[in-house]
Design brief:
The protein has about 180 residues and is mostly helical. The protein has helices at about 5-10, 15-30, 35-45, 60, 65-75, 75-85, 90-95, 100-110, 115-125, 125-135, 145-150, 155-170. Helix 2 (about 15-30) packs across helix 8 (about 100-110), helix 3 packs antiparallel against helix 5 (about 65-75) and helix 8 (about 100-110) runs antiparallel to helix 12 (about 155-170). The longest helix has 19 residues, at about 155-170.
Length: about 180
């Protein structure tokens, strides 16, 4: 089974837990999500990881496309773009700002309890890729060095949480808002 499929089934992108954490994060950032289209986006944004051979590499980089196609078919282009631009890498590559879904997605990771998140990503093997990639990236994608270099997953996760909180605060005002949803 591919790492992307494992992530969807019982890892960081688990198909029930992760969307619920995104909904909780959205509520903290923007208020309770009353628009049903948001709930569809919460549950569909990462489905493209299914079958991916990596999460942050060439295969995983295209994961937003699948959820975006479904959202476009159901609700139109704005909602497809909203879902597509939940990926910082995808947004950067297309020269567009991230969507508000990206902010909620990153906060979801930061608010998931370590006692739950770390066993999931260790069980799937995702932790290896995440720590490898965070120790070599720089600029806006830089998460941590110390935890990744030492192999201490608890330190790495705390550094990731801190990075995500800071990134969200810096990026909040520039995020794309789909019509008719408006930032609070």
């Amino acid at each position: 089974m591919t790492i992307g499929s494992k992530s969807i089934l019982y890892g960081a992108h688990q198909f029930i837990l992760h969307p619920i954490m995104v909904a909780i994060a959205w509520t903290r950032l923007f208020g309770f999500p009353l628009d049903a289209r948001l709930w569809f986006a919460f549950f569909l944004h990462d489905i493209g990881y299914f079958g991916c051979t990596d999460l942050d590499g060439l295969s995983g980089a295209r994961h937003p496309e699948c959820g975006a196609r479904v959202m476009r078919a159901l609700f139109g282009n704005k909602w497809g773009d909203f879902t597509l631009l939940h990926s910082r890498d995808y947004a950067k590559a297309s020269g567009q700002p991230v969507s508000q879904l990206c902010l909620a997605d990153k906060l979801a990771t930061a608010i998931t309890p370590a006692w739950l998140y770390l066993p999931m990503v260790c069980l799937t093997g995702e932790i290896g890729e995440y720590m490898r990639n965070t120790s070599v990236r720089n600029g806006d994608q830089f998460h941590s060095v110390i935890g990744a270099r030492t192999g201490d997953v608890a330190v790495w996760f705390e550094e990731l949480r801190t990075f995500n909180h800071r990134w969200i605060e810096r990026s909040r005002s520039a995020a794309v808002v789909p019509a008719p949803i408006r930032a609070a």
